[in-house]
UniProtKB/TrEMBL annotation:
It is an enzyme of class 2 (transferase). Major role in the synthesis of nucleoside triphosphates other than ATP. The ATP gamma phosphate is transferred to the NDP beta phosphate via a ping-pong mechanism, using a phosphorylated active-site intermediate. Residues 1-138 form the Nucleoside diphosphate kinase-like domain. It is found in: Cytoplasm. The active site is at H115 (pros-phosphohistidine intermediate). It comes from Pseudalkalibacillus berkeleyi. NCBIfam families: PRK00668.1. It catalyses: a ribonucleoside 5'-diphosphate + ATP = a ribonucleoside 5'-triphosphate + ADP; a 2'-deoxyribonucleoside 5'-diphosphate + ATP = a 2'-deoxyribonucleoside 5'-triphosphate + ADP. Homotetramer. This is Nucleoside diphosphate kinase.
Length: 147
């Protein structure tokens, strides 16, 4: 079953949106495979956002993602990588449709509430970066046949 890495960013944690965000993915029908509240180190932030190293906003991005605790999660389900990105909405909340997480709760591109892996390769890389094998649980849900 496909897995993705999702993370409530420091703005989402500060604004008490962890529960709301978890609820959306639960109600959709995906399964939580792992989760933890954590403080990201500078080293982990630079590694996670490595693809943006040369971009002008890289410094601010690292400062923001390390500015307070984040809620890191692994979610499992059919097409969960692309579907979660749709549920999050466009990167810039100004372009994100109403009904998406960023469309409903965020205003600025630099504080857009949630991160989600953008491809199977990113998902594999990011899950390994944030979680140990023993922190993840794979299990059968009896409700699965109804989804
Ligand atoms: P992430 O889930 O944070 O990776 O966002 P997403 O994949 O939707 O968008 P990308 B392109 O990966 O942006 C990464 C972070 O960089 C911020 N950003 C992006 C800016 O601040 N200015 C910009 O012009 C662009 C393109 C938004 C993303 N994170 N935050 N916070
Ligand atoms: Mg990204």
């Amino acid at each position: 079953m496909e897995k993705t890495f999702l993370m409530v960013k420091p703005d989402g944690v500060q604004r008490n949106l962890i529960g709301e965000i978890v609820t959306r993915f639960e109600k959709k029908g995906f399964s939580l495979a792992g989760a933890k509240l954590m403080q990201i180190s500078d080293e982990l932030a630079q590694n996670h956002y490595g693809e943006h190293k040369e971009r002008p906003f890289f410094g601010e991005l690292v400062d923001f993602i390390t500015s307070g605790p984040v809620f890191a999660m692994v979610w499992e389900g059919e097409n969960v990588i692309a579907t979660a990105r749709n549920m999050m909405g466009k990167t810039n909340p100004a372009d994100a449709a109403s009904g998406t997480i960023r469309g409903d709760y965020a205003v600025q591109v630099g504080q857009n509430i949630i991160h989600g892996s953008d491809s199977p390769e990113s998902a594999e890389r990011e899950i390994a970066l944030f979680f140990n094998e023993e922190e993840l649980v794979s299990y059968e849900k009896t409700i699965s046949k109804w989804i």
